[in-house]
User: Fold Cys/Met metabolism PLP-dependent enzyme-domain-containing protein from Immersiella caudata.
Amino acid sequence: MKPQTPQSSKMAIPEQSSKELAEAFTKTLSLASRSVHADDYINNHQAVAPPLHVSTTFRYSRDPEKLQPWNNHNPNTPHDSHIYSRDSAPNTTRFEALLTSILNAPAISYSSGLAAFHALVVFLNPKRVAIGGGYHGCHGVLHILHKLNNLQQLDLTSPSDLALLQKGDIVHVETPLNPTGEARDLAYYRQLATEKGCYLTVDATFAPPPLLDPFKWGADIVMHSGTKYFGGHSDMLAGVLAVRPDRGDWVQGLKEERLHLGSVMGSLEGWLGVRSLRTLELRVRRQSENTQRLVEWLDGEKAKRGVVGEVVDKVVHASLQEEAKVEGSWLKEQMPEGYGPVFAIWMKEEVVAKKLPSKLHLFHHATSLGGVESLIEWRAMSDQKCDKRLLRVSIGVEGWEDLRDDLIQGFEALKAEK
Ligand SMILES: Cc1ncc(COP(=O)(O)O)c(C=O)c1O
Assistant:
């Protein structure tokens, strides 16, 4: 399948994002420039840095003639008029304006990635959701919805389950996949969803821009745990849904439902989010390059007779998938800018997997991913069902050679204890 291009070059700076910028430049601005400027139109203060507004409520007009129910439009701040922060607020509005530009589609924020997934399923209201492996929390959300309305969870990898899909159901694909960082072929799932009359929703948390644009491959809704790369500093929880531009007023519908679900992001998080998105492209490119180098090195060393090969059983990452070696493969086309910054290591024994994090100095032993600091997690700590020899690694922006040397000394310390 050929990648689908946005309807017009202006699409990359969506209307609600920045008319002024779109008019000033005849070309589409780069992702890096849009990350810094796509919310400028909202700024009605002289301050260059965005203020943090913590108010939950906003004054109505003092002129009784101007009072209109559920409308607090202020002509002096046309893009920054609010009523109550469960509906909208200044910092999250700027965060959403940036995301709308960065993701090439109208975007809405939530209090966490799982809140976003919950909102997505509630909005589309399917009878069945086909979902593969990946982040176990999303399965947990479906489990709760099953309790409420008997929603059925189908296995994306089972032909007999897929045969049960019907019009209006959801095909939900996570790519790259948690915890291994392997990628999935979105064109294949788009075709499957189209044949069955289903929606295609994509959890692209592991490959933020510029690494992947699932809309090019026909996604109806793209979801991100904004806690990861959008936040990027391990200090905020957020979730994001972006809607394919030709889906009309879906974002308005999601916004109306969010008002009642109450799963909005906090203002502090919105402020942190804006600050973080400014450097998204820099961070993600660096993290992706670091990862590619480390994975290549680790995988190469594993085959040799040395300390790595003695303790490591296998390394898994999109860059090691067969299709990554084939020019023109779906993987190369889907991720031309590089692969995600998370990969998995299977150690030879459970005991060494459990110990390795304690031997490292630059990797924090912690769950989550996407921050500037590298993390390693003995995955059994937060996913009881996974193989106990599995370590999930999230690469940060440190120098990759330092991370490599830290791993070498960690492997050597393990060997010395044997
Ligand atoms: C792929 C993926 N999707 C969704 C989530 C949930 O995001 P959050 O923790 O922000 O709710 C995670 C969290 O790790 C994740 O890895």
About this structure: The radius of gyration is 22 Å. Residues 5-16 have pLDDT under 50 and may be disordered. The chain is about 35% helix and 15% strand. The chain has two domains: 9-277, 280-417.
